[in-house]
Amino acid sequence: MNAVDYQPLFYELAEAERDGEHYQRLRDRLVTEHLPMARHIADRFAERGESVEDLRQVAAVGLINAVDRFDVTRGIDFLAFAVPTITGEVRRYLRDQGWAVRVPRRLKELCVAIDTARVELSRVSGRTPTPSEVARHLGIEVDEVYEGLHAMSAYHLLSLDEQSISEELNHADRLISDDPALEVVELHHALDPMLRGLPKRERRIVVLRFFRGMTQSQIADSVGVSQMHVSRLLSRSLARLRSLLDDE
Predict the structure, then answer these.
(1) Which segments constitute the RNA polymerase sigma-70 region domain (predicted)?
(2) Which of 52, 70, 134, 202 could make an SS bond with 237 (beta carbons 3.0 to 4.6 A apart)?
(3) What is the tens place of the pLDDT at every residue in 170-192?
């Protein structure tokens, strides 16, 4: 399957009147054509005890939110934005469904506050915030943030034990274990099977960009190619990942 470049459609969507029919047609098309990706993400949570159909509906809501919130002018591919947005929606649904009654109210509220802060900080910085940044944002001690993160993981909403696809992903997982970047973990889980299908250098570039948060210039220095070549390889890799998701 030839991957479609959706960036022009998102530019067109950004310029369209939100109340107009053209905007709605573009929005509906973007949602419909990315539904296979949302279903794929939902299906990866199928063993968590909830019905697949319910998970797919939640993932579809996450996809709609991703389409509505995506800022095409930031220069990132929609896939890189949509996957953590959709997985976050599913993860919150599972958390709400599986929240134990005996959990203290203070801890529940702390986890919700941490989750909200992480979303807000990620939106501003374009990356997953560290526990220290979340603590400063909320005006609490960093130990409290770790307490909340441990409470979230106690409900099996994350798995840090999966075998990674390469030495680079093993390194990313070790960083996450020390400094839990939850959206990055979800992105890893959702894309791991597809990343295996990329050539070694392209896989490394994707890992450096989206798992380690390096800029294209930093990646170029690390890999030994030009920044322009890194940009081309990233675009090609993301198109390949989208094509693989569509084929699922």
Answers:
(1) 30-99, 111-163, 195-242
(2) 202
(3) 443 333 333 334 444 455 555 66
State the Cα angle at 191 between 48 and 207, rounded to 5°. 130
> Which long-range contacts link 64-71 to residues 24+ away (Cβ below 8 Å)?
64/31, 65/89, 67/13, 67/27, 67/30, 67/31, 67/34, 68/27, 70/10
Count of Cβ atoms closer than 10 Å to residue 7 Cβ: 14
Backbone angles phi, psi at 102, to 5 degrees: -80, -5
| 123, HSE (Cβ side, Cα atoms, 13 Å) | 11
Through-space distance between the first and last CA atoms of the chain, rounded to whole angstroms? 11
Angle at 61 (CA atoms; ends 48, 131), nearest 5 degrees: 65
Ordered domains of the chain (ranges, CATH): 1-99 (1.20.120.1810)
Would you list the DSSP string of 111-163?
A: HHHHHHHHHHHHHHHSSPPPHHHHHHHHTS-HHHHHHHHHHHHTTTS--S-SP
228 CB-contact burial (10 Å; exposed 0-12 / middle 13-18 / buried 19+): exposed
Give the Cβ contact number of residue 101 at 10 Å.
4
Report how far apart, in Å, the C-alpha atoms of 67 and of each of 32, 57, 141, 157, 208 are. 11, 15, 35, 24, 25
If one counts every other C-beta atom within 10 angstroms of the C-beta of residue 53, the result is 9
Quote the radius of gyration of the chain (alpha carbons, Å). Answer: 18
Model pLDDT for residues 126-142, shown as the tens digit of each residue: 888 888 889 999 999 88
Collect the ranges in the chain with pLDDT lower than 50: 1-3, 100-102, 155-185
Separation CA 175–CA 173 (nearest Å): 5
